[in-house]
Amino acid sequence: xxxxxxxxxxxxxxxxxxxxxxxxxxxxxLKKAMLQIEVNEVRGVIEQLRLQYKKTKEYVDxxxxxxxxxxxxxxxxxxxxxxxxxxxxxxxxxEVPYYEGIEFSDFNYLLFEAPAWVDAAIVGLRxxxxxxxxxxxxxxxxxxxxxxxxxVSIRVNLFEKILIPRSLFNIKKIKxxxxxxxxxxxxxxxxxxxxxxxxRENMSLQEKNKEASNAI
Length: 216
Known about the structure:
The protein is mainly alpha-helical. It has a domain at 23-164: Helix Hairpins (Orthogonal Bundle), CATH 1.10.287.3240. 72% of the residues lie in helices and 10% in strands. Strands 1-2 form a two-stranded antiparallel sheet. Strand 1 (81-91) and strand 2 form a beta hairpin. The longest helix has 98 residues, at 118-215. 12% of the residues are buried.
């Protein structure tokens, strides 16, 4: 840490800096609190989405025997994802994604030659893919929020534990030094005044003695 100047100008500079830090800190603390709420909320959402994904997968797994039938239609491309749509919203100063929908590649087959369960299997496979996409987008949101929360927490700690205490220490140090200088100046002034008064008394006494000598 650079040595500060023990001057009145530096005192004003430190007081101004402290005022700015104390003014901005509540904003950072509020942002931190908002981000923590959002992170907690999205964590809960992810748990629900994962549970939904698990249930959907277990339901669709009922088709696993038919899907593995070598004579049945190949459904490998039935849930091929073209695009996962997202919208973005600003939360506490950062853009976070929200799931909007999913687009699949076209999957064509001969309806009259396919087993009766094919349509239901395709719907099930696509539900699994959609459920998984929702989880992934929610995790993207959580990652963005957690990253911002870490950065804001670092700044809050920096303000609370380093910058503000340092400014307070510097202000106190400068005030003590200036106070000591003022006391020293007052003491010097008093000493000089006493010396002047003593000199005046001596001069006055000498003049009186001189007058007395002349009178004799």
